Amino acid sequence: MESFVKKGLSYTMDLILAITLSFSLVYAFTSTFKLAYKAQNVFIAVCIASIIYSILFINKLSLKIFAICVSFILVGMLVTFFTNPLEITLFIKNISSLTALIDKQVNGEIVLSIRYQRNIFIALSAIIPLIVYIFSVKKFNFYILLIGGASVFVGQWIVENFRIYFSFYIFLFIILIYYLKYIYLRNIKLSKENNKVPISFLISCIPICAIVLISSYFLSSRDNPIELSWIDSKARHVSNNTKKGSNTGSNNYFKISSTGFGDDNSRLGGNVSIDNTLVMKVEAPESGIYLKGAVKEIYTGYSWESKKFGSIKLGSMLELNNFDDDLFELLQGSKIVSNETNILEEGFDKSFIDITYENLDIKTIFIPSKVSNLSFEPENSLYVVKDLYGILFSESIMQKGFKYNAELYKIDKNNEDIYNLLRRSKQGLYSEYIEHNYIGSEGNEGSRDYVISLEAKSKDIYNEYLQLPNELPKRVFDLAFEITSSVNNNYDKAKAIESYLSQNYKYTLMPGSVPEDRDFIDYFLFDSKEGYCTYYASAMTILARSIGIPTRYVEGYVLPERSTDGIYEVTNKQAHAWVEVYFEGFGWMTFEPTAPFLESLNNTTEEQILNTQNKTKKEEEIDDEVEDSKPKNNNETLKEEVSNNVNDIESKSKLFIRITIQLLVVSLLWIFIVPYFKRKIVIYRLKKYSSKQEIIKIYKRLLRGLSLQGLKINIGETPLQYAQRVDEILDSNDLSFKTITDIFNKACYSNEPISKKEIQNIIDFYNTVPIYCKKKLGKLKYFIFSNILGVI
């Protein structure tokens, strides 16, 4: 019994390793093919497939049944092909078409339908676990696992599609364990019958391999000093949770990197992992409201920095009024553009929002654009400071429960007159107005002072927010001019850049690292062409500056799409970066270049983007794909042929799904049917042949069934002594195991033939063993040993 338990544990460990290796390979393929399946979906599918194979391969009989089923399917396909040669041609065309579709999916030219993606995913989840199971559990072969698995990742690297490092690290971890297993087997030179590695050895390999892999990952050779970013992030997390209410320096001010977007090392880009930590609850009339937490204006080529470190102390108060310089410019400057029209009443909607901090320990007060009033709860009285970018802070740290109300003005998106007025904005608008309206006029001194102050502010903005690094490649300037060449005002130019970025670049949280010798924006625009919000916002800021439009990079949160009774739960998934463009007469206006935030009216979270992007272009791209496959003549005929091929692919895919389901059903039925017929076959062979070999085989099965009940032969115990002990414990009045043992000894050592009565005695005792096993083991264990493992 003890030996059987060890074998079971060893088999379980082998199966776990096989599942893990299969997961790493299948997940690598899904990332290469850009299939819309998450890691947990891949893991579940691999587990199901591996467990099914473990059942089908549990013994020779089940393997034969599985092989027969597969053979029938293959024979049926071959018969179909040979009886109808057109089927072969159609099959080859379908494979070619499917290969072309996958190639275009990988290259980002199209997005496969959910049906195609599902079928490819099922095929990967069925084939790869089968191969891994055979060469890791059934017939261990280290070199096939190493070469086969390495080929997957080397192939990804060759085609420059090496993205899911997580899969690669898992593969390295498992292959290290398999290497130690291979060395162990080679050194001790075990025989075939005992070719098993102790589970204790495999378990001891796990920490060793983990230490090697983690050390090689975090302590790898690099030009920069060693940075233990994982440890740093964990330390920051512990610090934030254990030092609530204390001043910990720069960590008390909002930075998007602290929410999971990139490493907190000032460099832009890289893969990110955002969490679902609830940071605030906002009661608002609608979604899509932007809450600013940081503004930056200096672009270095690899990061964003702020050079304004001054601040204005607003004092200790429960309410702030008229503190937003940007709203002041909209109120006063818009009169110049609109000829004294009250823009706030006609073109903007007044809204009120309530903000409550949850899991935050921060000094930053998040505010929307164009805010006219802030009101704090009496118990939340604080000393407010405003920096030179218009962002508000408290001198003390605000924690969970901090609450305030904001009154803001949001542009009416349905009012086309507002956009026409924005098109009239231009550099020097205030200067022209002063020149034409305030020459020698004493009656408008107050109004003139307002406009003069706005003119001074505008000049400062043009001096500060057009900064570009000297090393910025020329092709960035060329692209900016190309995008905006067809329009003649700053608003339409900004919209053209916004639209260009949202439509031509792919959104992903795993864009890979930016080479250290490359400009971040240049690499995004012309090489990687994929990224997340910081990529899009940075690119629009620099492109707009390249054509003389003042622009700045903004970080904060955006309200999610869904709410509960008007309460929006804002998590780190809603952390975001966007762009503000300056227009004389209006101040800073929000622009959203991140795809597909623009199409979804700013209501999509960073995570939801991954599941929805490019849907609006799918039909167009599929049409292009069909068009590309046409020759120069007979267009209509070939179009119909391609359409038929696609339908045939769908039909074959449905056939594959049906076959998979049928195999699954057959496998489950086999668990309940095969054990019954297996016992019948044993009895039939014994009755028909009455050979001594059959008696010896059935006696061994009896010993196996008795050992499961704890009745194992002791060391030095003879068969007759063992039989007497079994009879005493079983206390059977009908049959004696000693009688069966005497028959066994006769079959082994005597030349006398076995009588029919002796054969019947063996059959009767053989039929009683399952009854004793079920009583001793219980129904569940008996079912596992009998129907699944097939040892009773």
Write the layout of secondary structure elements.
Layout: H1 2-32, H2 39-56, H3 60-83, H4 85-106, H5 114-138, H6 142-158, H7 165-188, H8 199-218, H9 229-242, E1 278-283, E2 290-296, E3 298-299, E4 304-305, E5 311-317, E6 319-321, H10 325-338, H11 343-347, E7 348-357, E8 362-365, E9 371-376, E10 382-387, E11 392-398, E12 403-411, H12 416-424, H13 429-437, H14 445-464, H15 474-483, H16 490-504, E13 506-507, H17 520-528, E14 530-531, H18 533-546, E15 551-558, E16 567-571, E17 575-583, E18 587-591, H19 606-612, H20 618-628, H21 635-689, H22 692-707, H23 719-730, H24 737-749, H25 756-777, H26 779-788
Parallel strand pairs: 13-14
Antiparallel strand pairs: 1-7, 1-16, 2-15, 3-4, 5-10, 6-9, 7-12, 8-11, 9-12, 10-11, 15-17, 17-18
Helix pairs in contact: 1-2, 1-5, 1-6, 1-7, 2-5, 3-4, 4-21, 5-21, 6-7, 7-8, 13-14, 15-18, 16-18, 17-18, 22-24, 22-25, 23-24, 24-25, 25-26
How does this model look, in words?
The chain has 26 helices and 18 strands. The chain is α+β, with helices and mostly antiparallel strands and 792 residues long. The protein folds into 3 domains: 2-221 and 636-667, no CATH class; 256-613, no CATH class; 690-788, no CATH class. The strands form 5 sheets. Strands 6-9-12-7-1-16 form a 6-stranded antiparallel beta sheet. It has a 4-stranded antiparallel beta sheet with strand order 2-15-17-18. α15 (474-483) crosses α18. The longest helix has 55 residues, at 635-689. It starts with a helix and ends with a helix. The model is unreliable at 190-194, 220-250, 599-608 and 612-639 (pLDDT under 50).
